Amino acid sequence: MADIKELRCPICNRTYSPLDVTYTCPQCGPVGTLEVLYNYEHLKAQLDRDELRNELQQSMWRYKSLLPIQADSFVPPLRVGMTPFYETSRVAEALQLKRVWLKDDGQNPTGSLKDRASAMVVARAMEQGIKIVSTASTGNAAAALSGVAASVGMEVVIFVPSTAPEAKIAQLLVYGATVLLVEDTYDVAFELCSEMCLKEGWYCRNTGMNPYTVEGKKTVAYEIAEQMNWTVPDVVIVGVGDGNIIAGVYKGFWDLFQLGWIERIPRLIGVQASGSSALAHAWEHNLRPEHMQPMPANTVADSISAGVPRDRAKALRAVRQTNGAFIAVPDDEILSAIPTLARMTGVFAEPSCAAVYAGAKRAVQSKLVDADESVLLLMTGNGLKDIKRAQQSVAQGLRVQPTIESVRQALQIR
Ligand SMILES: *Cc1c(COP(=O)(O)O)cnc(C)c1O
Ligand SMILES: [Zn+2]
Hints:
The chain is α/β, with parallel strands linked by helices. The protein has 15 helices and 13 strands.
């Protein structure tokens, strides 16, 4: 286990005890999404990265000693994490980059990287004897929470926009969550959920608001480093809506750097959709997170649709501290990246995740990424999550009668 030293606000730098504060900074409000910090000198003296070779847990819990949970605490049984890691020379060639890797978090049990955060939150909720957890979500965080909670029999209340993709809503219902389809945007569902949680005493997983989601998500960076034998790519490219995943990726590499397990932190590039690009806008105009105003959020990539990115403070810091960048890509490029990526790699990505490929292409073209840099594309969500958008990205199949003649005709074989 790792004893939490303090929770720190990225806006005002005040620190708090986790016993005193559950959600965001009492001084700064919702923009002050707290960061979980440990005693790194102590951990450094105690832990040895090479001992992970003997670790039998093939899941995110192999890093339990770096997570905010007691060593003997129970963790949810679903296998979350230790997802596939591939080098792909075909994508490297297509993007004209030296080396490219994919980390496929669409292979998590509910089909997205969000499982890492939900597993962490449910583990903490169990530790504290909490009975009901709740979240607002564009779909994946809710599916993750519902799935992980089902594995331990915990009760879940979900707030999703009624426009969420059908497959994601189906997942929630199948897992047995209480599902509220909010007739409004994700941002509105988020406020509603926060308010209900505070009124009813439910434990709130809301992205950014709950400090522990980042602690779950950071394990993807640990895995990347371990799967690369404690080296790191030059650049990591991530799809960004609320900014919690990119904050988690940064925190993971930052932890490892504090421990002396890696020599540097990769440059982080966040990809947004042009129709939902609040963070790209803030980065371009050098805005401070506390001065950002709500922006429109219209895109085919529902998982990165956020008008008020909840973890804007940490997302901007992750990119600024690593000399990274934000890029916005239009919806047509996001959709066409789905089959492009799938045909080169066998990895079927949902739109928010295909956006990473579209963003990488633009980053190379605009020289934000150099041809001799090595790049990891973080695949955050499975393509089966949003079949409607996938179908829009490809031609239809060939309809035939069950005859040889009809098949020949369809295939234009003489
Ligand atoms: C949630 C999500 C993102 C974006 O993560 P944020 O923390 O909102 O920036 C990207 N891709 C997928 C598949 C997601 O589910
Ligand atoms: Zn603060």
